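Q: Fold this one first, please.
A: Sequence and structure below.
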Amino acid sequence: MRVRMLIGSLLVLLVAVVVRGQQAPPPPEKALPAQLNGVTKQILEMAEDFPAEKYEFKPTPEVRNVREVFVHAMSGTVFATKTARGENAKWDEIDPATYKDKAAVVAAFKKAATDLDAALKALPAARFQASPQPWVSVIEHTGEHYGQMVVYYRLNKMVPPASRPKK
């Protein structure tokens, strides 16, 4: 009898711990901006970190170089910002030739990231609850180019910022 009571008590305690440990996922108005800002900051950190003298690196002639990849990823950030502001946004490819070097790319990308954060904060929660688009598409797009840049880092015998040991 005591063993049953002990086992029963342990089961109740275990269920309480498991239930308490489970948290509801954040609502869309919190989750989507957090994911979008998060991946934007990751690729911006790479743009800041990648050596300026390697900004023209490309693994093969038919793919974008480092500078072009960062500008292309920034195109998604600008699109998301315009959408959040309620502008008639279409995905316009930003011309990488407009940004001649690392300093120009980083300055523009920082502005784009700041503008995105402000626009998302100003957006009513109902907009995120109505549809996850275009936010999910921009998150996916930016994430794909984050992965591409990880490869560019590795091809240059460098470690991406997120893979470095934390101090």
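Q: Good. Now the second chain.
A: Here it is, same layout.
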Amino acid sequence: MMIQSRLVRNLLWGAATVALLWVVYGYRTGIRILPAESAQLATGLTLVDASGDPVELEAMAGRIVVVNLWASWCGYCRMEIPSLREIHDELGHQGVVVLGVNVEEGGSEELEARVRDMGIGYPVARPSAPLSGAFAGSRALPHTWIVDRQGRVRASHSGFASGRSLKKAVGKLLRED
């Protein structure tokens, strides 16, 4: 009888621990969408692609843009890439753009090699000036911003973002229009 009650107690503690970890994981990897009225305009992101051509968010007006700051040496950044690629592939026809922003030193050949080796299937650029405006202050990698169709930064998330939370946040903005 004592062994049975100890087993039940341990099972309950184990279930409670798993539930707590599930809640904490969901909170840490979830993305919160800000109300449109309090969102900043998406300014302060000056980018160039691997060829050195400018990449401008203004050219993506009318679309939802998922901006993901990353580096190839960042494990969590690498973990996000398949989810970002999936969003790009599945939601691109609905006006969603994924834009990777690589922060590593090196020339265009190194950037192109990283993109190819990691199987990134969405546009990648790098900053040509320090991040400022709505994009300033990010020191953690990865960092993800979601810009709505009106050019406002509706989400800013430091650290790993699960694919589920990314899709949920983008889906919420897709339903707004």
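Q: Anything worth noting on the second one?
A: The helical segments are 2-29, 75-91, 108-118, 163-176.
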